[in-house]
Amino acid sequence: LALYFHSGEREEKCIIEDIPMDTLVIGNYKVQRWDVHKQDFLESAPGLGMFVTVTTPSAEVLLSKLYGPQGTFSFTSSLSGEHIICLQSNSTRFVAFAGSKLRIHLDIRVGEHFLDETVVQAKDKVNEVNFRLEHLIEQIHHISKEQNYEREREEKFRKTSEETNSNILWWAIVQTLILISIGIWQIKSLRDFFISKKLV
Known about the structure:
Elements lengths: L1 E7 L3 E8 L4 E12 L4 E2 L8 E6 L5 E7 L2 E7 L4 E9 L11 E10 L6 H6 L2 H72 L4
């Protein structure tokens, strides 16, 4: 996931990532500050840091740390589900004066270990092949985790659908019984009425 978004200087922005259990997540970000004179975003925002907070589906804070204007954060998920990743600048200016606009570039990799090409080039060919094989094995493990997680979600959805269908069936049966009971009661009431009026 690679994107950028605009944010106020004191504004917190969050994204939601659906992550399987026991999965490494690596995020790279860069902050740019709006320059009024140049009418453009500056390449960097010196002196401005970012608070990164990661919350698990059970509302447990997995990561809460202050980084610089450009950095990398990482965490390993302990639960499957929607993790909330929030970024907020560490600006100390009051809200009334913190009118500067920020552009935040964010790149999130789920279950992927970045290859350091300089390390790869420094090793001989056998080690390079070994290194790439390990990387491929890690990716296979990640794909397997993703598939297991999707299976779990599909099973939960199927169970919910079956329960809903079962409830609908029982409600239809109850409605039918109520209608039949009302019909029998109306016929009996009419019959009693006609008998009392000596029409039958």
